[in-house]
Amino acid sequence: MPCSTSKKKLEKNLKNSLIEKSKEFGFDVIRITKPNISKENRDYFDKFLFNNFHGEMDWLENKKERRKSPKKLWSDVESIIMLGVNYGPDHDPLDSIKLKNTGNISVYAKGNDYHDIIKKNLKKLGRWFVQEIKSEIKVFVDTAPVMEKPLAQKAGLGWQGKHTNLVSREFGSWLFLGSIYTNIVIDTDEEELDHCGNCTSCIDICPTQAFPEPYKLDARKCISYLTIEHKGPIPINLRSKIGNRIYGCDDCLAICPWNKFAKESNEMKFSSNHNKESFSLEKLSLLDDRNFRLMFSKSPIKRIGRDRFLRNVLIALGNSKSKSAAHYIKRNLGDKSPIVRGAAVWAINQILKGEEINMIKNNFLPLEQDINVINEWNYN
After folding, report:
1. What order do you get walking across the sheet with 175-182 strand by strand?
2. Angle of helix 354-364 versus helix 338-351 axis, rounded to 10
3. Is residue 162 part of a domain?
4. Is 289 a catalytic residue?
5. Out of 46, 92, 116, 142, which one is annotated catalytic?
6. Per-residue pLDDT at 15
7. In this structure, are 175 and 69 located in the same domain?
8. Taking burial as the number of CB atoms within 10 A of a residue's CB, which of 221, 284, 291, 347 is the most buried?
9. Single residue among 182, 206, 233 that ends a domain in this structure
10. Looking at residue 269, what is its pLDDT?
11. Does 142 share its domain with 27?
C-alpha cells in the first residue's frame, strides 16, 4: 500500500513539473495520452491511401503500419506527451487573398521553419525529462511516421474538425504539434470531444472543393498540396482557383468560428521575415536559384525549391489578370526549368490575347523541346 501511494505521488509531481517546464521551453499546451490509435482513425487512414487521396505523398504510405501504431514505431513506448505551440497570426489570413498582385503565403511559413524551432525546444524538454526521471524518450516533430492529430485529440489538445485539421477551443486553428514518446507510465488526460456541430464553413470555403465530404480530404485537390507537395505541372482545371496563393492555403483554417478564441503567437520567430513588398508577384518572378535560397534560407519554403516556387508565382500572376504582369511572365518563357516555362505559358495566355499572344507563341514554340511545355502552348 505505501508503495502504491508513493508511486501515485511521484506521477502527479512529475506531471506538474513537466507542465511547468514545458511552458519554460515555449510550449503553450501539454497533454498526455496512451500510445494507441483508434480503429476508426486506422480505418480512415487506410481508406485515404486506398482512394489515392494522398497523391504524390508516398511517404504517407511508406511505413504505414508504423504510422498506425506507436508501438510499432517504438515497442517500449508507454506514454506520449503531446505538446502544442500557438502560431496564431496578428491578422485575418483571408484578407491577403484580396491582394491580387501580392503572393499569399500560409501563416505557418511566413517566419522561420517551425520544425527547427520546435524540435530544438522539444530536445531541451526531453533532456530535462531524462535527467529527472531516468527514462528513455524519442522526440518527433512532423517528420516521422506519427499520426499526430489523432494522438493530439486523444490527449485532449483539440479535435479533428471537418477539414481534418486540429481545432482547439483555446487556440482555434493555430497549433503546431510535437510529441515526446517515453517508456514510463504517466497519468493520461481526457480525450477532446468534437465541437464542430452543424458548421460546415471550412468545407464551403474551399476554392477547389477538396473535401468530398466532412472529415475527408482529397489532398490532390488541396491548394496546400498542389503548391507544396505536388512536383509537376498543376492540373489546368485547378489553376484559376488557386488565386494568389503561392505557398499553402489557410482558407479552411482561417474561416473556423473557433478562431474567435485564438491568440496571437508569442514566438517572434513565427512572424514574417519580410514586408508585403517582398511578396510582390512581379518581384518574386525574377528570383534565380541563389536569390531564392537567400530569401528563404530560414523558411520552410526553401524545401520546395526555386522552380516549384516560381511555378506557383507564375500561376498567381496569370490569375492577377494584370497587364503589367505580362512583361515578367514573358521573362520566364525561356527559363531553364520546364515546370517554370509551362506555368509561364499558361500565365501569359491568361493576360494576352489575339495577335499579341500569337507573336510570342511563334517565337518560343519552335524552340521548345519539352513535351509538357509544347502541350501547354498547343492547349492554349
Report:
1. 29-33, 79-86, 175-182, 137-140
2. 160
3. yes
4. no
5. 142
6. 84
7. yes
8. 347
9. 182
10. 63
11. yes
Q: Are residues 148 and 295 in the same domain?
A: no
Interatomic CA distance for residues 199 and 259, integer angstroms = 13
Cell of 219: 489532398
- Contact between residue 81 and residue 187 where contact means Cβ atoms under 8 Å apart: no
How many domains, the chain?
2
Q: Are strands 104-105 and 245-247 parallel, antiparallel or unpaired?
A: parallel
Closest CA to 105 of 93, 121, 116: 93
Say yes or no to pLDDT of 162 above 50: yes
pLDDT tens for residues 322-338? 999 999 999 999 999 99
Q: Based on the domain organization, do 177 and 279 belong to the same domain?
A: no
> And the C-alpha cell for 150?
489523432
User: What span, in angstroms and rounded, lies between the C-alpha atoms of 72 and 167?
Assistant: 27
**Amino acid 219: pLDDT:** 97
What average pLDDT does the segment 71-83 reach? 95
Residue 119 maps to a domain? yes
Would you state the cell numbers that stand for residue 224, as one nine-digit string?
496546400
- The domain of 296 spans 275-379
Any bridge partners for residue 116, and if so which? Answer: none
The verdict on 174 and 283 lying in the same domain is no
Beta strands (DSSP E) in the chain are 29-33, 79-86, 104-105, 137-140, 159-160, 166-167, 175-182, 245-247
- Out of 132, 166, 182, pick the residue that ends a domain: 182
In 169-213, the DSSP E strands lie at: 175-182
From its phi and psi, is residue 248 left (phi > 0), alpha (psi between -120 and 50) or beta? left
Residue 310 lies in a domain: yes
**Cβ(77)–Cβ(191) under 8 Å?**
no
Distance CA 269, CA 306 (A): 23
Q: Are residues 301 and 166 in the same domain?
A: no
pLDDT at 187 over 70: yes
Q: How far apart are CA 45 and CA 236, in angstroms?
A: 28
**Long-range Cβ contact pairs of 8-11 (< 8 A, separation 24 or more):** 11/185, 11/186, 11/187
* Residue 274 confidence (pLDDT) above 90: no
